[in-house]
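Components:
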Amino acid sequence: MAGSAAAVRTSGLSKSFGGTPALLSLDLEVAPGEVLGYLGPNGAGKTTTIRCLLGMIRPTGGRAEIFGVDATAHPAQAHRRLAYVPGEANLWPGLTGGQTLHLLARVQGSADEAYRAELIERFQLDPSKRVRAYSKGNRQKVLLIAALCSRPDLLVLDEPTTGLDPLMEQAFRGCVAEARERGQAVFLSSHILSEVEALSDRVAILRGGELVEVGTLAQLRHLSALSIEAAFDTSPPDLSRIPGVTAVNVQGNRVSCQVVGSVEPLLGVLAASGVHQLLSREPSLEELFLAHYGRDPAAVSGGVDAG
Amino acid sequence: MPAESAAANRAGYGADRRAARTVTVVTARRAVRSGAVWGLLFGLLIFNEAVTYHKNFPTTASRESFLRTIGSNAAIITLIGPPRQVDTIGGFVAWRVYFLVMVVGAIWGMLTATRLLRREEEAGRWELLLAGQTTRRAAAVRAMAGLAVGWIALWAVTAALTVAAGSGSRVGFSVSASLYYATASVVGAALFLAVGALTSQLAVTRRQANGLAAVFFALSYLVCLVAGSRGGLGWMRWLSPLGWIENLNPLTGSRPPALAPVLLLIAVLAAAAAWLAGRRDLDEAVLTRRRAASEDTVLLGGAGRLAIRLERWVSLAWAAALVAAAAVFGATSRAAAAGNVAVGSIEQQLGHFGARPVDPLAAWIGYMYVYLAALLAVAAIGQIAALRAEESEGHLENLLARPLGRPVWLLGRLGFALGFVLATGAAVGAAGWLGLAFPPGGPGFAAMLQAGLNATIPAVFVLGLGTLLFATVPRLAVPVLYCLVLWSFLVEIIGSSITGEHWLLDTALLSHLGPVPATGFDWSAAGWLVGVGALAALAGVAAFRRRDLVGS
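Structure:
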């Protein structure tokens, strides 16, 4: 049953805190072996989604499944195939890193000890120190190692690189890429857009508790505007009347604009107007993200402070 | 330009002062709350002893009999100091309550200071305050000022109730005598606030800071014990800060100059704490742990074993303290029982459970074990507080994100807590029997074991109710439990003054506890309390499955 089920499936998943909606009817699916980047500003509902998936909080509506198991009704069963890394590493200060890894492996029920030793090397963690003495980044490493070494079918990562330096962030990206190659699914909530862009097969964008976009980067780019810059021998033609063209900006003999949908009408006009230089560029994930939130600055600051 | 510069300087100075004041206010707000509650408790204790004196000792003969018994009893003198003018109401109140308030106040001071200084630093909140326009030393001084405000609240409430008690026509303490008594009673709290402030600079964790302060307390107390054990060693009280406080002699020949060394020591300790706070780094301590961290994985094999590992030292400390108290009660009970101390309270209690001819020794032990039951209930609250801390500090999330069911985790923790309570109860019974064993006679081992287990009943109820509260109103669970036990304790100590108000007694947990071994084990009351506690625990486990995890 569970073998063919989606790693994560939510249907109509909703959560309110004291009447304030934090998550609104979320329908989402992560396939086995897939990396899903989960984006949204503070308060968009990312952490709320994850806490519902883990059974830490009860949804007020809808359903969340992990490999076909109802995560709310049977959280312990659902957790057998996942490992979770929270954004804030709250560990027992009196234990050492090594003791914490031992404890978490025992509670998890399984750990690849050789891989754990390798991860300790790769993340340059000193496991003999007490958690109290660790920096924030080192505490995060403990949780990353604990999650990765259990080799779960699903990794649920909530801002997992908080506090890591750029070198360690590279090490993390390598580990996630390896996990994907092994067929593990990854649910990656992150603010670091370059990280999501580099690792994700698909991206889901959340806004005010609602899913506003989900798809591969190519699909999102296709749906989004293409940036065009053109230079002319003479004054540029009026491009603002061409269907799908927006944000026209003229500076002397140069013009820039955005095109949504087919570029054919624009190319026809440009060719007839003596264009001698043409540049086109797909939007980055950052531009896609900002395009979704730029329309309503209030959405970026977040209406609901529930993560 | 110079005017602008002066204005900027004034603005900066104002901001500095506001930042500094914030540290004082934040600390004082929390210290005042607990200071006022404990002041209320101390005040009511003093009030009760003063107003019930004539009821407990109605005749000159009864007072003389009491004085003869106490005057010849080395154990009692060693334990709570020599009685002075104990045949007068002032002497009796001073002797009965003064040492108790001094000791409990000292423990309050120690725990409050380490909680509001070292614990705040451990939790990272101190760093936020230091990021303002202040320095480490200035912030420490301001925080100690906040602690002083908390102590003033403790003193004010204690003093108000002492003055109220003293103004009664049959009591007759002057206002100045009442104020001096209240001051002397709680000056130990001020001293140990300063001790806690200093150990918070010395130790890197609150637990260690409490340990250091407890060692200081234990040494001071030990010197007092030795000084009280034989007449010729009384001079040794001057070697102990607690002895200095004993020598203040409120209501029995007051010696205000004896306050001088206490106040001087408080000033020295506070100055040392401020100096060290300025010299050390944030999150560090003077006595930073040097030894390498242990790599043992004992008791790290699962969530249940982790509970034992996390709580073992605190639980053992509680158990040791209660066992020691039971042994001392046992050793001193013959003399105390012979002196008919608080006979009214005992009779009142026994009446509640059906009057019958009673052995005074068994009655006294039963009476004292009710107090041990109250302390064991407080230790049980500590277990519920530990549950809540695991959740509020985010540790629980690390466990529950793994294949561990919430009921399994909660039942594991409850199992440990219940085991701790029952084992401590049995040990308390055995320790009391050992204390009584020489010379032989009095209640046997089985009766004392029953008394110890009887003392666990309120704690078992607290664990059950605490589980339900933790599962339904997690942030309120611990305060509500403290209120319940405090209320029960207050009703217990003023119970002898309550006549015909059984409904009031019934609201108190401890009132349902039979004073075993004076009476037989009350299976009916025990069954009700344990049964209700068990049902509450089961409801709590079910409710915990369904609620959201809640942070601090």
